Amino acid sequence: FYLFDTETKKAGYLLSRRGWVDPEKMARVKPVEFKARDGLAMRGYLTLPPGKGERNLPLVINPHGGPFGIYDTWSHDTDPQILAAAGYAVLQVNYRGSGNYGRSFNQSGAQQWGLAMQDDLTDATRWAIAQGIADPGRICIYGGSYGAYAALMGVAKEPDLYRCAVGYVGVYDLVKLSAQESRESKRLNTWTSEWMGSGEKLAPVSPNRLANQIKVPVFLAAGGEDETAPIDQSQGMEAALKKAGVPVETLYYKTEGHGFYDVEHRTEYYRRLLAFLSHNLGGSTAK
């Protein structure tokens, strides 16, 4: 689709249809709503595996990246659809700090990395269990970028709630990240201190400092050219997990950035992801 300017006689690209996607074969996505422990209304989306019903399902909690101002929507989303096709229910939650729900909701996430923002994901998981949607013994948490941070923080804070965690192009040492961004620019330093926090106050909410609290297998993936979440963040998390005796698998590509874009790399990533989840939750592997 293009937007045509009748004065300049120029067309600007807007978006493309995914013509190869058959709506009839897509997993059903339904909006959900629940209350966080402090009474704040939480909204999100539940993707259900075709033909599996809606109860006692293996569940993947899938927090979005960002975190601030970003939000999940009721639309085609590749990862939840892939996971649903493999037999998993997928719960995406617009935790506090997400966009689309007003300034107050967005700002309520300020300096809440690993704190109230994380509690929202825990509350979402427990809600899914209480509703009978999730099999409490088959739940994993998986995300990219900030979502990867939340995944590792989730299994550190709630070692008995999740069976595994997956971190894709994530950040795990907030103290180091804060120091790096402070050196790069004053603007980044201001954003970091106001929204993430600063200094050693970030140590208690850095997953790499909490590896000895993690009791479940972890899969990490990262790119060597990632300037948003440098690969040494994942490598440091890997080292901390190994030191703590936590089973950890990794997939690193030195030529990838903040996300894998090479077709072969993406294919291998999803193959490894599905194999990891299958081993821990019992779903299907890649065909």
How would you summarize what this structure contains?
The chain is an alpha/beta fold and 287 residues long. The protein has eight helices and ten strands.
Question: What would your notes on this structure say?
Answer:
With 287 residues, this protein is α/β, with parallel strands linked by helices. The protein is 33% helix and 22% strand. The longest helix has 19 residues, at 263-281. The protein is built from 8 helices and 10 strands. Helix 4 links the parallel strand 7 and strand 8. The chain has a single domain (26-281), classed as Rossmann fold, CATH 3.40.50.1820. The strands form 2 sheets. The protein has an 8-stranded mixed sheet, with helices on both faces. Strands 1-2 form a two-stranded antiparallel ribbon.
CATH class (first level) name: Alpha Beta
Number of helical segments? 8
Q: What proportion of the residues is helical, as a percent range?
A: 25-40%
What does the overall shape look like? globular
CATH architecture: 3-Layer(aba) Sandwich
**End-to-end distance:** 33 Å
SSE topology string: EEEEEHEHHEHEHHEHEH
Arithmetic mean pLDDT: 92
How are the strands ordered across the major sheet?
Answer: 3-4-6-5-7-8-9-10
Rg is 19 Å
The CATH superfamily is: Alpha/Beta hydrolase fold, catalytic domain
